[in-house]
Please model this.
Amino acid sequence: MHDYLQNGGYYYGMGLMMFFWLFLVIWFTIFTGIVVFQLKKIVSLLQRNPDITNPDDKKAT
Model:
């Protein structure tokens, strides 16, 4: 019974660690995906309309 409890605690701890790492990986993947998506959107906007970030650029020159 003592060995069973030790093994159970070990597997429970491993499960928690696995879940934690899985959560971390999923969160990181989602975060990276959002950042990349936003960057692509910004880049495509810049390519279509260069004056979108600085509308006063033409007035200044």
Q: What stands out?
A: Residues 2-46 form one domain.
